[in-house]
User: What shape does this take?
Amino acid sequence: MKTQRKAVFLGMALLMAAASVFAGANKQSGKDTVGYIVGSREHVFYTLIEKGINDTAPGQNIDAKVMDGDLDGNTTSNHISNFIAQNVKAIALSANDPGGTTPAIRDANAKGIPVFTFDCTIEDASLIKCFVGTDNVEGGRLGGQETVRLASQGAKVGLINFDNPQSCLDRRKGWEEVVKASNKNLRIIEVGNYTGDASKAEQLMTDALTQNPDIEIVFCVGDPAAAGALAAIKAAGAKTKIIGFDGNPEAKAAILDATNGQYWVSEISQNPQEIGKQITIQIRKYLDTGKVDQSVIMIAPYIITKENAAQ
Assistant: This one.
């Protein structure tokens, strides 16, 4: 019995010593653990945001734990719950399903964990310390300007949308604002909701061209939609021009390509690495001072064409 007790006491002593060493290491490193949730690693845009986070976090004394939200509210909410259980210092996420993730964000607030959003946010701004993202309405306007510039009088112009993320709804809003105000009397063709799936965008574009083979321009609210549209347009032998949105490497490559550049002619570019960098900087400022530079930080989009794609 005494031998067993000695073994138990020795084991407890070793555990306490290990915990002490671990705590000391954390204190020595000075790093705060922050949980991040990106929209989906299947999208280059979000992998570039993750790169911006990982490149910036060490210099901000942040230990970044990055998870994939799979563009799904339940998955994202589960990640938030896990981060709460781990007692992270802050949580930052792309709220691609605002309604679905708001209850979990409320739970984090109730536990005293500050929440930040990037790319996509939620309606209740009081639950968020800072949002960093692209000015998507302005990006949509730039897409509208390109549509008007490229289209002929009275032309049919298509829209491939994504009905869930607020960012994509904002792009649509800006695009429609400019296109409907144009004196070219353009006719909008609803190609459909591609739900973030390039193969679905390809099918939607195929169906749209069957009904309207003379669509001159298609504006795509994300590069996966543009990639799907490109495949459909080439297969159909159509002459439709594509305006994409994201600024991903494949978009620039397509624009510069001798064949694909005949179709994918314009791109509205975001700066995802800057988004990842800025949200991480704001988290550090909040953890240190209880304040951020601004509650909303917008990163300006810009137009890419063959003239500047190589830059």
